[in-house]
Amino acid sequence: MKYAVYYWNARILIKEVDELKETIIKLLKNEGLKEVGRKPRKEL
Questions:
Q1: Is pTM beyond 0.70 here?
Q2: Which residues, 6+ apart, have CB-to-CB distance to 32 below 8 Å?
Q3: Is residue 42 helix, strand or coil?
Q4: Which pLDDT tens digit goes with each residue over 1-44?
Q5: How far, in Å, CA of 26 to CA of 44, rounded?
Q6: What is d(CA 18, CA 12) in angstroms, rounded to the nearest whole number?
Q7: What is the rounded CA–CA span in Å between residue 32 and residue 40?
Q8: What are the angstrom distances between the C-alpha of 16 and each of 8, 21, 35, 36?
Q9: Does residue 41 contact residue 35 with C-beta atoms inside 8 Å?
C-alpha cells in the first residue's frame, strides 16, 4: 500500500501548489495594475 501513500501525498502537494500559483497570479495581477502607465514590466 506504499503507492496509496505516495499518491495521497502527491495530491496534497499538487493542491498546495495550485493554491500557491493562484495566490502568485493574483499578486502579479495586482502589481501589474499598479504598474500600468508608470513603466513597462520586463521582469516575469
A1: no
A2: 41
A3: coil
A4: 678 888 889 999 999 999 999 999 998 888 776 655 566 656 55
A5: 14
A6: 10
A7: 9
A8: 13, 9, 28, 30
A9: yes
